[in-house]
Amino acid sequence: MSHILVTGGAGFLGGNFVLNWLANSDAEGVINVDKLTYAGNRKTLAPVEDDPRHIFSQTDICDRTALDDLFAKYKPRAVVHFAAESHVDRSIHEPGEFVRTNIVGTFTLLEAARAYCGALGADAKVVFRFLHVSTDEVFGSLGPNDPQFSETTPYAPNSPYSASKAASDHLVRAYHHTYGLPVLTTHCSNNYGPYQFPEKLIPLMIANALGGKFLPVYGDGQHVRDWLYVDDHCAALREVLARGRLGEVYTVGGWHEMTNLEVVYTLCDMLDQLKPKASGSYRDQIIFVKDRPGHDRRYAINARKLERELGWRPAETFETGLRKTVQWYLDNQAWVSDVMSGEHRNRLAKRYAA
Ligand code: NAD
Ligand code: TYD
Looking at residue 313, what is its pLDDT? Predict the structure, then answer.
């Protein structure tokens, strides 16, 4: 059976991608390579645990020998690379792990893929792909009237997270240019949806709202993000993997810019409808806290190239995607308590105490 190798497939995006991929009954199998850091959770993969097309390997992408073994054993048709340290706030406090996984890990994976691809026969080599999943944060911060980010926007990463992702993008580009590795790169805006770790804005606000805690909005709450429902991102990645032009870059976004405060208000209003409090509104729990250092003011994406070349547009509006997301968190409180380990709770408590 043919397989694709997915890294970071126990995380938010990778987990959704694996579930979506295998939901298609004709899909190739998945070799799911994940170290299972605090952000990775096997419970996300419960729906495919018994699916013979899903093979899970708890492996660090910095481990070259383990990667070589997986390539040799399963001979994947493609690599879809999600594994990363992904949270900006953590990168400010502990940047070392971001350099290790995002840069050294991507380098190690590229080396393993290069060795594997180089030894493939002509037919297999033609179809092999390495899809690198990157972020719009590598482009830095936009002013209120600047045009949206596109494939030609110069790099200007501002956080240790975005700088480490930018470094990995450059390595991927260089492996195409220098060695002819058949790569594709995507830069996506902020995603939301089921299985997102409750340290990111939307799931954190839902968890805190339901737990009767404060909803901490950084600074003045006027920072802008361009929100995309996770299934729409997965659909875009499938299109790029299937029909993207080799060596090309695609920006992916939801065409939906909102300030953080607008997002939190919308979320509170939705929770007021779906799970009303005994008295008052969830909006009463909002507080403004000290801003994140170096906080990027605005991200926005022009996804026209993806639409023009591959016919992709998001299927969900923010309203429909958010409603699905809130309902999923209401129905899956056990998943949330499971991933919110003592270690994570202590970290958040320390940050807000400081
Ligand atoms: P996540 O933090 O939820 O998941 C990351 C996964 O990678 C986890 O399962 C973790 O266990 C795994 N991992 C971490 N270090 C590893 C290592 N050394 N070896 C193997 N596995 C390791 O992240 P996410 O939000 O799902 O993001 C996935 C990718 O998509 C990242 O590369 C991120 O930059 C990119 N991205 C995310 C968003 C977003 O809004 N979430 C938007 C654009 C791009
Ligand atoms: P986040 O989900 O961490 O994504 P990113 O920093 O990668 O965009 O944050 C989204 C926005 O929400 C960002 O502007 C920071 C802000 N934010 C808050 O205001 N409060 C919070 O508790 C968190 C986690 C984020």
Answer: 97
